[in-house]
Write a structure and sequence with these properties.
The protein has 394 residues and is of the alpha+beta class. It is built from ten helices and 21 strands. The strands form six sheets. Strands 1, 2, 3, 4, 7, 8 and 18 form a seven-stranded mixed sheet that branches. Helix 8 crosses helix 10. The chain is elongated.
């Protein structure tokens, strides 16, 4: 189809549209843009914006969910998000307009502009192409969770700032807490209680060594040392490296003259395949329980979520989607440096993360920072690469 769409002009409008508190205005811009280009977008019950194309033209987005796609050929989904983190940073230009600054410039309105361009202008000669844009990637990922459970797809291309590299793997990310239950007593007679705060010191040490003792493979064990047969952790992943377990908050006690009966450590877990979140919770609880006195209790809880946890994922680097996008972009095939809702799709079909911009540069953070930026040439290059990938696969 022939469409008069300027991804750079759309990108400028998008960056200038606040979407850190509500995505309503930004979603309206996206819907209006698609309608003006001849598409027939719809907003589903989870707030996702959906549009679809086939060789015959534009399909019905409602037909995508809840059943088998009624079209011969592959079904490729282009996904990114319209929400941004606060605060809003106004649109600006530098270096003669070659660089766009502002909230969402690279995360993820640059990728969004590229995906919209590819959706509208790619040559779909067979199969189906879907644009699926979520409303809450930076918060709860309920939009992506809804899509993952209803879209029947053969591949997902997720737009995030990757510097035009093709990312086939990402760590999982989830949070939880370790709660120690002791017995309260007066601080004048501490022996009559079980001090939960005092129990935190060995637990913090045990958390530091959890992956070493639970996840080390036999091949990694020093010569003559046997791996702990209880080891259940994932060890080191070939592209993502080792998982991390980081204590981030410590709480405990109610009064300065009282032996504390309860204390809590909040942690951040960055997982690697093949670890699954609930298996990790049980393994960590068993590991840490060995480090508290028998008179005290210990419990590991995961943070409650509406959507599933962001699990670690890895797509085969030789998958046709990966090879087509790498050939079209010229980018390296590597892992992604942050957790992403791509993990919600990866259990259903091969999934890659791709887009213009960077998470960080040699000066520090870019995405989510006050200096967020993207090069206009990279937005255009990303659009060309995705369009060429769609042309090859569909």
């Amino acid at each position: 189809m022939s469409v008069d769409f300027d991804p750079l002009a759309f990108h400028e409008q998008a960056v200038g549209t606040p979407s850190h508190e509500s995505v309503g205005e930004m979603r309206a811009l996206l819907v209006e843009t698609l309608e003006e280009a001849g598409a027939d977008p719809a907003v589903d019950a989870a707030g996702n914006t959906l549009a679809t194309r086939t060789a015959d033209g534009h399909g019905d987005p409602d037909a995508l969910q809840g059943g088998t796609v009624p079209v011969e050929g592959a079904h490729l989904v282009l996904n990114t998000h319209v929400d941004t983190v606060p605060p809003h940073v106004p649109f600006a230009e530098r270096e003669g307009g070659e660089i766009v600054e502002g909230r969402g410039a690279c995360d993820a309105k640059g990728p969004l502009a590229a995906l919209v361009d590819a959706f509208l202008r790619a040559d779909v000669s067979e199969g189906r192409l879907t644009l699926a844009v979520t409303p809450d990637e930076e918060a709860n990922q309920t939009g992506a969770a809804h899509l993952a459970g209803t879209l029947d797809a053969d591949g997902f291309l997720v737009g995030e700032p990757t510097d035009l590299d093709v990312c086939t793997a990402a760590r999982g990310q989830f949070e939880g807490s370790v709660t120690v239950q002791g017995t309260s007593a007066h601080a004048a007679t501490p022996g009559e209680g079980d001090n939960a705060v005092r129990a935190l010191a060995p637990l913090l040490q045990a958390m530091e060594t959890y992956d070493e003792s639970e996840g080390r493979s036999a091949s990694e064990a020093p010569s003559g040392e046997q791996r702990d047969p209880r080891g259940r952790g994932p060890g080191e992943h070939e592209s993502l490296g080792r998982p991390t377990l980081t204590p981030t908050l410590v709480e405990g006690g109610e009064a300065p003259n009282q032996v504390p009966a309860e204390a809590r450590i909040t942690f951040d877990r960055r997982s690697v395949p093949p670890e699954r979140v609930h298996e990790f919770r049980a393994a960590l609880e068993e590991h840490l329980s060995e480090w508290v006195p028998s008179s005290m209790g210990l419990r590991v809880d995961l943070e409650g979520r509406e959507a599933p946890y962001l699990e670690a994922f890895a797509t085969d680097p030789e998958d046709p989607l990966v090879r087509a996008l790498a050939d079209a972009s010229g980018g390296a095939v590597r892992s992604f440096g942050a957790a992403t809702e791509a993990s919600l799709f990866a259990g259903h079909a091969p999934t890659v993360v791709f887009g213009p911009g960077v998470l960080a540069d040699d000066q520090g953070a870019v995405a989510h920072s006050d200096r967020e930026y993207v090069r206009r040439a990279d937005v255009a290059a990303a659009a060309d690469a995705v369009r060429a990938t769609v042309d090859e696969l569909l």
